[in-house]
Write a structure and sequence with these properties.
With 183 residues, the protein is α/β, with parallel strands linked by helices. Helices cover 31% and strands 28% of the residues. The protein has 6 helices and 11 strands. It is globular.
Protein backbone atom coordinates (compact mmCIF):
# COMPACT_ATOMS: atom_id res chain seq x y z
CA UNK A 1 0.00 0.00 0.00
CA UNK A 2 1.11 3.55 -0.67
CA UNK A 3 0.80 5.80 2.39
CA UNK A 4 1.59 9.39 3.25
CA UNK A 5 2.94 10.04 6.73
CA UNK A 6 2.53 13.35 8.54
CA UNK A 7 5.31 14.01 11.03
CA UNK A 8 5.34 17.32 12.95
CA UNK A 9 8.67 18.36 14.44
CA UNK A 10 10.22 21.23 16.35
CA UNK A 11 14.03 21.46 16.42
CA UNK A 12 14.13 17.64 16.68
CA UNK A 13 16.75 16.38 14.27
CA UNK A 14 17.57 13.07 15.97
CA UNK A 15 13.99 12.07 16.77
CA UNK A 16 12.78 12.87 13.26
CA UNK A 17 15.65 11.04 11.57
CA UNK A 18 15.28 8.00 13.82
CA UNK A 19 11.52 7.83 13.19
CA UNK A 20 11.91 7.92 9.41
CA UNK A 21 14.80 5.42 9.47
CA UNK A 22 12.70 2.99 11.53
CA UNK A 23 9.75 3.33 9.14
CA UNK A 24 12.02 2.77 6.15
CA UNK A 25 13.68 -0.24 7.78
CA UNK A 26 10.35 -1.86 8.61
CA UNK A 27 8.13 -0.81 5.73
CA UNK A 28 7.88 -4.25 4.11
CA UNK A 29 6.30 -3.98 0.66
CA UNK A 30 4.65 -0.64 1.34
CA UNK A 31 5.58 2.69 -0.23
CA UNK A 32 5.84 5.55 2.25
CA UNK A 33 6.02 9.25 1.56
CA UNK A 34 6.86 11.48 4.50
CA UNK A 35 5.50 14.97 5.04
CA UNK A 36 7.73 16.55 7.67
CA UNK A 37 6.50 19.83 9.12
CA UNK A 38 9.15 21.82 11.00
CA UNK A 39 7.31 24.22 13.31
CA UNK A 40 10.19 26.68 13.44
CA UNK A 41 12.60 28.41 11.08
CA UNK A 42 15.25 25.72 11.81
CA UNK A 43 16.63 24.32 8.55
CA UNK A 44 19.85 22.92 10.04
CA UNK A 45 18.84 19.29 9.42
CA UNK A 46 16.55 19.69 6.42
CA UNK A 47 18.99 18.27 3.85
CA UNK A 48 19.82 15.32 6.08
CA UNK A 49 16.12 14.48 6.41
CA UNK A 50 15.49 14.90 2.68
CA UNK A 51 18.31 12.46 1.94
CA UNK A 52 16.74 9.68 4.03
CA UNK A 53 14.30 8.74 1.25
CA UNK A 54 13.35 9.91 -2.19
CA UNK A 55 9.83 10.50 -0.92
CA UNK A 56 10.03 13.31 1.62
CA UNK A 57 8.23 16.64 1.58
CA UNK A 58 9.64 19.28 3.96
CA UNK A 59 7.30 22.05 5.08
CA UNK A 60 8.79 25.00 6.91
CA UNK A 61 6.11 26.28 9.26
CA UNK A 62 7.45 28.84 11.75
CA UNK A 63 4.74 29.35 14.35
CA UNK A 64 4.41 31.02 17.71
CA UNK A 65 1.95 28.33 18.80
CA UNK A 66 3.15 25.76 21.33
CA UNK A 67 2.26 22.26 22.51
CA UNK A 68 -0.98 20.77 21.14
CA UNK A 69 -1.83 23.84 19.09
CA UNK A 70 1.56 23.69 17.35
CA UNK A 71 1.07 20.00 16.60
CA UNK A 72 -2.42 20.69 15.27
CA UNK A 73 -1.31 23.43 12.89
CA UNK A 74 1.48 21.20 11.59
CA UNK A 75 -0.93 18.35 10.94
CA UNK A 76 -3.36 20.71 9.21
CA UNK A 77 -0.50 21.96 6.98
CA UNK A 78 0.54 18.37 6.27
CA UNK A 79 -3.00 17.40 5.28
CA UNK A 80 -2.81 19.91 2.44
CA UNK A 81 -0.05 17.76 0.87
CA UNK A 82 -1.62 14.31 1.32
CA UNK A 83 -2.21 12.33 -1.88
CA UNK A 84 -3.10 8.89 -0.54
CA UNK A 85 -6.42 7.36 0.55
CA UNK A 86 -5.06 6.65 4.04
CA UNK A 87 -2.51 8.56 6.08
CA UNK A 88 -0.38 7.75 9.07
CA UNK A 89 -0.07 10.65 11.50
CA UNK A 90 2.50 10.47 14.26
CA UNK A 91 4.77 12.34 16.59
CA UNK A 92 8.41 12.27 15.60
CA UNK A 93 9.33 10.15 18.63
CA UNK A 94 7.54 7.11 17.19
CA UNK A 95 9.57 4.15 15.96
CA UNK A 96 8.54 1.04 14.06
CA UNK A 97 10.03 -2.11 15.55
CA UNK A 98 8.67 -4.93 13.36
CA UNK A 99 8.45 -5.43 9.62
CA UNK A 100 4.78 -6.33 9.79
CA UNK A 101 3.65 -3.38 11.92
CA UNK A 102 1.91 -1.57 9.06
CA UNK A 103 0.50 -4.84 7.69
CA UNK A 104 -1.17 -5.32 11.07
CA UNK A 105 -2.63 -1.80 11.07
CA UNK A 106 -3.84 -2.19 7.47
CA UNK A 107 -5.44 -5.54 8.37
CA UNK A 108 -7.64 -3.67 10.84
CA UNK A 109 -8.63 -1.22 8.09
CA UNK A 110 -9.47 -4.20 5.86
CA UNK A 111 -11.63 -5.58 8.70
CA UNK A 112 -13.71 -2.41 8.51
CA UNK A 113 -12.01 0.05 10.85
CA UNK A 114 -11.76 3.65 9.69
CA UNK A 115 -9.15 4.56 12.31
CA UNK A 116 -6.36 2.39 13.73
CA UNK A 117 -3.97 3.67 16.36
CA UNK A 118 -1.09 2.72 18.57
CA UNK A 119 -2.16 4.42 21.82
CA UNK A 120 -5.57 4.87 23.43
CA UNK A 121 -5.47 8.06 25.49
CA UNK A 122 -7.76 7.75 28.49
CA UNK A 123 -6.76 10.96 30.25
CA UNK A 124 -9.37 11.46 33.00
CA UNK A 125 -10.17 15.06 32.01
CA UNK A 126 -10.48 14.48 28.24
CA UNK A 127 -12.46 12.26 25.93
CA UNK A 128 -11.01 8.78 25.51
CA UNK A 129 -9.51 8.79 22.03
CA UNK A 130 -6.98 7.17 19.74
CA UNK A 131 -3.92 9.35 20.33
CA UNK A 132 -2.18 11.20 17.55
CA UNK A 133 1.13 9.63 18.58
CA UNK A 134 0.58 7.09 15.82
CA UNK A 135 -2.58 6.43 13.86
CA UNK A 136 -3.73 5.31 10.44
CA UNK A 137 -6.91 6.95 9.19
CA UNK A 138 -8.87 7.56 6.02
CA UNK A 139 -7.69 10.84 4.53
CA UNK A 140 -11.24 12.02 3.88
CA UNK A 141 -12.01 11.70 7.60
CA UNK A 142 -8.84 13.53 8.61
CA UNK A 143 -9.60 16.35 6.21
CA UNK A 144 -13.18 16.65 7.48
CA UNK A 145 -12.40 17.36 11.14
CA UNK A 146 -10.30 19.88 12.98
CA UNK A 147 -7.04 18.66 14.42
CA UNK A 148 -7.07 21.37 17.08
CA UNK A 149 -7.63 20.59 20.76
CA UNK A 150 -11.01 21.50 22.24
CA UNK A 151 -11.46 23.58 25.39
CA UNK A 152 -14.53 24.03 27.54
CA UNK A 153 -14.48 26.45 30.47
CA UNK A 154 -10.69 26.88 30.05
CA UNK A 155 -10.18 23.12 30.43
CA UNK A 156 -8.90 20.91 27.62
CA UNK A 157 -11.50 18.22 26.92
CA UNK A 158 -10.03 16.92 23.64
CA UNK A 159 -6.38 16.81 22.62
CA UNK A 160 -4.91 17.30 19.15
CA UNK A 161 -6.50 14.81 16.75
CA UNK A 162 -9.07 13.50 19.27
CA UNK A 163 -11.90 14.64 17.02
CA UNK A 164 -10.95 11.82 14.64
CA UNK A 165 -12.15 9.33 17.24
CA UNK A 166 -15.19 11.46 18.01
CA UNK A 167 -16.02 11.52 14.28
CA UNK A 168 -15.89 7.72 14.19
CA UNK A 169 -18.14 7.49 17.26
CA UNK A 170 -20.63 10.02 15.89
CA UNK A 171 -20.83 8.17 12.56
CA UNK A 172 -20.84 4.60 13.92
CA UNK A 173 -17.48 3.84 12.32
CA UNK A 174 -15.23 1.20 13.83
CA UNK A 175 -11.85 2.14 15.26
CA UNK A 176 -9.14 0.06 16.87
CA UNK A 177 -6.14 0.60 19.11
CA UNK A 178 -3.22 -1.84 19.29
CA UNK A 179 -2.86 -3.57 22.65
CA UNK A 180 0.85 -4.29 22.56
CA UNK A 181 2.31 -0.87 21.86
CA UNK A 182 4.99 0.59 24.12
CA UNK A 183 4.21 4.16 25.11
Amino acid sequence: MRLDFIIPTFHSRDLTINAIKSFEKHKGNHQFRYIVIENSSDTSYKEEVLNLSGEIVWIQNPTSLINSEANAIAIEKGLEEVKTEYIFICHNDVAACQVDWMDYMISKIEEGCSLVGTVLDDHPERITAVHISGLLVETKIAKSVSMYPVYENNKQVADVGDLLTQYCRDNNLKYFCCRNTLN
